[in-house]
Amino acid sequence: MLLNVDQCSTHLNFMDPICDFLYHMKYMFTGDSIKDQVEKIIFNLRPALKLRLRFITHISKQEPAAVPPPPPAPPINSGSPAPQANQVPVNVTLPVAQ
């Protein structure tokens, strides 16, 4: 029904409450039982609705452009902190209470 309304209208009023209601129905009643059918419908909706409904079927995980590259591996720690490029070495004698 939402797909028909989306395709036949230029502007959809009450988009946020409609999406909230669909999330409520999914989490309270259907779960993932109709995930495949819902995913196909959401894929054909206008971008504003896709954006609001992307977490119903976790479509955002399937878009390769949305996945950032993994961070580079950290260097092996030798036990002492490595000097940073923006740090200036400072030698300060601190008093020690005895």
TrEMBL record:
InterPro entries: Mediator_Med23. Keywords: Nucleus, Transcription, Transcription regulation. Residues 63-98 are annotated as: Disordered. Pfam families: Med23. Residues 66-75 have a biased composition (Pro residues). It comes from the Eukaryota. GO terms for cellular component: mediator complex; transcription regulator complex. The keyword Nucleus applies. The keyword Nucleus applies. It is found in: Nucleus. Belongs to the Mediator complex subunit 23 family. PANTHER family: MEDIATOR OF RNA POLYMERASE II TRANSCRIPTION SUBUNIT 23 (PTHR12691). This is Mediator of RNA polymerase II transcription subunit 23. It comes from Engystomops pustulosus.
